[in-house]
Amino acid sequence: MSITVQTPTHCTALAPAVPLGELLADADARRLFPTLTGSAALADSRQLNAEAAERETVRRSVDAQFPVIAQFLADTPARVESSPVRITAPGAREPLITAELFTNDDPTPRTVAAVYASANSDVDTNSAGLRQLASRMRHGACGFDRLADQLAAIEQGAPAAPQPAAPPTWTMRTHDGDEHTETCPTWCTTTEIHQRETESTIHPSDIWHQSDHVAMPLVLTESRETYEDLVLIADVAVIPHADEAEQRIPHVNMQMIGDQDFWTGPMGPDEFGAVIDKLAAHVDQLRAVHAQLVQARADWQANGGAQ
């Protein structure tokens, strides 16, 4: 049966009747070859279909001769290790746009970048929300570039270099009822705290990012009670919306003893480097005291020990 599509009479540009099969073939050609038009695209589409049919015939022949291998390949899905990139408008329930690498399970698998919108991605917003969306889109563009690099490596037949996970972005509700979006620095390890912050209201100046700390365990004695605590605790931190300018840039705070509220002020690289130099010099002094202790013990032993 032949089906023909007639151009409606209300269209401004009339076209002759076209068989439905040819119309669909032309549409598929335009999808596969968007830079070509008309007969050139259709010819390339038909050539691609012919090649695919030939490969399918060869595959079926090989499968019939080696059924065990065919079954193994069928049970081994193709996977692409990649993190999706999502951009969500402020206040929206689902992403406005998502991009991720996808490998189909056709006889000739092909990896592509699947880009799509979610059903509940629409939202009405004000100028502040629109600026937030612009910021998210600029950040998301970096993620698109990472996916493009991975896809290019796959297309060229080379293994894609592992990509670092994108820093998490959090949307929090402020005490004023507004939404605030915060992206963690790459070194931030306080993700559990940020997750809890999304479940309540918060003032932006209370948001801080912190790295894992380094510390020295030491046995201490207080009121004849002995316990172990951490001393000289240091980490990188930033409070991006703090009132104090020095808190708004990455810095180091050093806590003297873990259970006591004795801290240095925020230190930049030069100030922290000076503290490290002082500690290094102090270590030399401690080694000198250690040598004195060794000598004092030797003298004590030489004099008969305890009197």
Write a compact overview of the structure shown.
The protein has 307 residues and is α+β, with helices and mostly antiparallel strands.
Report on this model:
- The protein has 307 residues and is an alpha+beta fold.
- It has six helices and twelve strands.
- The strands form four sheets. Strands 9, 10, 11 and 12 form a four-stranded antiparallel beta sheet that branches. Strands 3-4-5 form a three-stranded antiparallel beta sheet, covered by helices on one side. Strands 7-6-8 form a three-stranded mixed beta sheet.
- 39% of the residues lie in helices and 21% in strands.
- It is flat, with a radius of gyration of 33 Å.
- Among the domains are: 17-76, no CATH class; 79-166, no CATH class; 208-267, no CATH class.
- Mean pLDDT is 77; it is low at 1-42 and 75-79.
Compute the number of helices. 6
Class from helix and strand fractions: alpha+beta
Task: Please give the radius of gyration in angstroms.
Answer: 33 Å
- Roughly what fraction of the amino acids lie in strands? 15-25%
Based on the model shown, name its key terms.
307 residues, 3-stranded antiparallel sheet, disordered N terminus, 4-stranded antiparallel sheet, alpha+beta, 21% strand, 12 strands
